Structures are given as structure tokens and as C-alpha cells.
Amino acid sequence: MEETLRTILCFGDSNTNGCNPEDGTRWPYNVRWTGVMQRELGENYLVIEEGLGGRTTAFEDPFYPGRKGIDSLPSILETHYPLSLVIIMLGTNDCKSCYSATPEAIAFGMRRIAETINSFPYPVWIQKPRILIVSPVHIGKETERSGCAVFDHSSHLKSLKLAPLAKAEAEKAGASFFDAASVAEPGVDSIHLGKDGHLALGLALAGKVREMLEGQC
Predict the structure, then answer these.
(1) Burial class (CB in 10 A: 0-12, 13-18, 19+), 183
(2) Is residue 52 part of a domain?
(3) CA distances from 25 to 38, 85, 167, 176, 194 (A)
(4) What CA–CA distance (Å, rounded) separates 57 from 42?
(5) Among residues 41, 36, 49, which one has the least CA distance to residue 76?
(6) Is the pLDDT of residue 1 over 90?
(7) With CB atoms counted within 10 Å of each terminal CB, which end of the chain scores lower, N or C?
(8) What is the number of domains present in the chain?
(9) Is there a domain that residue 79 lies in?
(10) What is the pLDDT of residues 80-132, one digit of tens each?
(11) Is residue 47 a contact partner of residue 6, using CB atoms and an 8 Å limit?
(12) Would the pLDDT of 6 be above 90?
């Protein structure tokens, strides 16, 4: 008898893609939080990484096309279903000054992503995936180190307010919630996770996934 494989889609930005804060390269898969989570969960799980640098929840990037998450998500869902769980970790790029978005609007964008997953026209032979909204790590104070002119001090302040707002919006969408800032912080560029951050987040999310999919809570 074949054992059911639990498939997890990780939909995020450069912190899911694995941008190295020290030099802008990409961390190896076994260092990235998605790879850490895959290792911890084991062979009965398949972790699919869908991280794109600059991706937002619902804002159109004025400089680089294709970063509006709510637009690209449907084709990604169709590419990878059936899915047991979709993990959403977005919101960092929504804090950029060029969007002039309030923390409330950013959290609502997370909810709209979850609602898009819930309303997708899945084939009748599969169940809808469960959803986990992850509020991202805080943006550091020294945003000039990011090398991106559209992160500023207001970005830092917005990021500090996101978690409780995102948790409330997750509840409205029927999604579970986790605060990445409770276990990790950005590296030297004030935006991206270092090795320790990826390890801590991957371990924590592996535990959360087990709780959600193996009935431990």
C-alpha cells in the first residue's frame, strides 16, 4: 500500500528563495528554511519552494514586473496541486516606501492571498489545502544596508506592527498563523535571513506543520 505524501507549497519572497544577506548570493537548499523543514519532516513530505525576490501580496512593483503575488498564485497552485498545505510568508516587500501601504493594508494582503487559495477552482478529486500565514521577520533599523533604496525607517516600523494584524486576518480567512519574528531576525543587511535564522525558522515551521497535518494540537 502506497503511503500518502504530504505536499507543502511555500509561497514567499527572497527570504523563501534564500537570499544571502552578506553578498546577495543564494544559500544552498540545505541551509534555506525550506530545506531545513524538508530534512526535519522526512520522506513522507514534499516541500516545494516558490520564493521570488521582491514578491508582494497585492502590490505591483514599479521597477520589476511579475512581483504581485495575488496574480501569480493561481498558476502556481495549478502547477503543484494536490497540496496538503500552503505556507504564505509575504509582507516584507509590502513595507517598501514606494507602496505607501499601512500595516493594516499589508496584513489584509496576506488575507487576500489566503482567500485566493480557498477560492481556487480545484478539481473535484482533491481537497483544498490547509493554509499557514507566516508573518515575516522584522526589518532591521539599518535599512540602508539592504542596498534597496525603497526600504527606509518607515519600513522597519511597519514590520514591527505586522504580526498581530496578520494573525487577526489569518483567523478571518480560516488560516493558521505563525510569527517568524518570534524565532528569527534578519542578517547584516536588515532584510534577509542568515544561516542561523533559516535554521531556527525551518525547525519551528517543521514543528508547526506536524501540529497541523498530523493532528498534534
Answers:
(1) middle
(2) yes
(3) 21, 28, 32, 31, 12
(4) 30
(5) 49
(6) no
(7) N
(8) 1
(9) yes
(10) 999 999 999 999 999 999 999 999 999 999 999 999 999 999 999 999 999 99
(11) no
(12) yes
Mean pLDDT of the chain: 94
Does residue 1 belong to any structural domain of this protein? Answer: no
Q: What is the CATH number of the domain that holds 187?
A: 3.40.50.1110
In the chain, DSSP finds a helix count (H) and a strand count (E) of 6, 5
Q: What is the dihedral of CA 53, 18, 42, 79, to 10 degrees?
A: 20
In a domain, residue 123? The reply is: yes
Please tell me whether residue 88 adopts helix, strand or coil conformation: strand
C-alpha cell at 186: 534578519
Distance CA 174, CA 58 (A): 19
In the predicted model, is pLDDT for residue 145 greater than 90? no
The domain in which residue 208 lies consists of 6-213
Q: In whole angstroms, what separates CA 164 from the centre of its chain?
A: 16
For residue 7, give Cα distances in angstroms to 53, 84, 129, 182: 23, 5, 9, 25
pLDDT (tens digit, 9 = 90+) per residue, 73-86? 999 999 999 999 99
Grid cell 523543514 — which residue? 37
Q: What is the pLDDT of residue 151?
A: 92
The arrangement of strands across the sheet holding 85-89 comes to: 45-51, 6-12, 85-89, 130-135, 176-179
What was the pLDDT predicted at 3?
57
Q: Give yes or no for a contact between 184 and 200, defined as CB atoms under 8 angstroms apart.
A: yes
CB 214 within 8 A of CB 207: no
